[in-house]
UniProtKB/TrEMBL annotation:
Originating species: Parascedosporium putredinis
Protein name stated in the entry: rRNA adenine N(6)-methyltransferase
Annotated binding of S-adenosyl-L-methionine, by residue: H39, L41, G66, E87, D115, N133
Single Gene Ontology MF annotation: RNA binding
E.C. no: 2.1.1.-
Chain intervals with Low complexity compositional bias: 12-22
Protein origin, superkingdom: Eukaryota
Stored PROSITE patterns: RRNA_A_DIMETH, SAM_RNA_A_N6_MT
Keywords annotated in UniProt: Methyltransferase, RNA-binding, rRNA processing, S-adenosyl-L-methionine, Transferase
Domain Ribosomal RNA adenine methylase transferase N-terminal: 46-194
Length: 343
């Protein structure tokens, strides 16, 4: 009589009736979209450290950009008064809502669905601290904290350090994320500065763009180069066309051909010696008996608009500023935010 064939054992089945079956591997909640930077921090120790370094006070409202499944959010809620979580992915927002549902944390959390970059300021309540696990390369973090002379020192470094105090908190290996990103990460702390000068952001950033065009060239070579000088000349003409009354009498004489740039420089040098004070850099109100007629001068400047100055007026002004600040021979790569502010 033939033997009955025994059924093959399933690899996951217990080998004895007293052995518990192996636990099935837990499937992820959903597939993460790495194209929008969905790399979830999975190391609780690092999450605790990030929240601790934020120094959150019980009376503060925290804005979190990209909360994901709430690894940081739940910890922030333990310290903050309220949390505003801005999440782009509806699936993530739903998961975060489930995590806090039915707990005291639910009342302290506001979830805003949308792209933070596209949100209007009116769509967010005021907040005191911002925490974000947004994706970026470690090199980006190093550029934020780079100082003059560092290879990564750039316009981003100057702008960041002019408006804030930046410090490096810790390195975070890509192994601490699910799924692992392609690059390593760093945690940085950025605190807004309250002692920064009240200057025009557009003018400040425009100046830095020129300085860092070739950060290892001298500032004098950069600013007196043909392309940069021509751009500054056109900008000055536009400004002078709009602000006719603010153009100095000496500049008017150069524009009208009544005085050369060399004559102007000599006159200013003499004025500086007589007054034992500052030289006239232009931009002062016109005064005295030789004051030009505003309507006539406005017409003259409008005819000049868009035409390259051939008197060397702007080049002379640039050289004068660089010489007076001692920055002509300096390089952008070696100057800090204080040097640029002085210029």
């Amino acid at each position: 009589m033939a033997k009955a064939q025994r059924a093959k054992r399933n690899g996951s089945a217990p080998s004895s009736p007293y052995q518990k079956p192996a636990a099935a591997k837990k499937a992820p909640i959903f597939k993460f979209n790495t194209k929008i930077g969905q790399h979830i921090l999975k190391n609780p120790a690092i999450a605790d450290a990030i929240v601790a370094k934020a120094h959150i006070q019980p009376v503060e409202t925290v804005l979190e950009i990209g909360p994901g499944t709430g690894v940081l959010t739940t910890r922030i809620l333990d310290h903050a008064k309220n949390v505003i979580a801005v999440e782009l992915d509806p699936r993530m927002a739903a998961e975060l809502s489930c995590v806090v549902q039915g707990t005291p944390k639910q009342q302290k959390l506001q979830i805003v669905l949308g792209d933070f970059i596209k949100l209007e300021s009116s769509e967010l309540k005021p907040f005191d601290v911002c925490i974000s696990n947004t994706p970026y390369q470690r090199e980006f973090a190093l550029r934020l904290i780079a100082r003059p002379g560092d290879s990564l020192y750039s316009r981003l470094s100057v702008n960041t350090q002019f408006f804030s105090k930046v410090s490096h908190v810790m390195k975070v290996s890509k192994k601490n994320f699910t799924p692992p990103p392609q690059v390593e990460s760093s945690v940085v702390r950025i605190e807004p500065r309250t002692d920064r000068p009240n200057i025009s952001w557009d003018e400040w950033d425009g100046m830095l763009r020129v300085c860092f065009m070739r950060k290892n060239k001298t500032l004098k070579a950069t600013w007196t180069g043909n392309k940069v000088r021509a751009m500054v000349e056109q900008n000055w003409i536009t400004w002078a066309t709009i602000n006719t009354e603010a153009v100095s009498e000496k500049d008017w004489k150069v524009l009208r051909g009544e005085e050369s740039v060399d004559d102007q420089a000599a006159g200013e040098e003499a004025d500086a010696m007589d007054e034992d004070g500052d030289e006239d850099m232009g931009g002062g109100n016109v005064s005295g008996g030789d004051e030009p007629d505003a309507e006539e001068d406005n017409t003259t400047l409008r005819r000049l608009a868009g035409i390259k100055l051939n008197k060397g007026l702007i080049a002379a002004k640039i050289r004068r500023v660089l010489d007076s600040t001692g920055l002509g021979s300096q390089r952008a790569a070696k100057c800090d935010e204080t040097d640029f502010c002085t210029s």
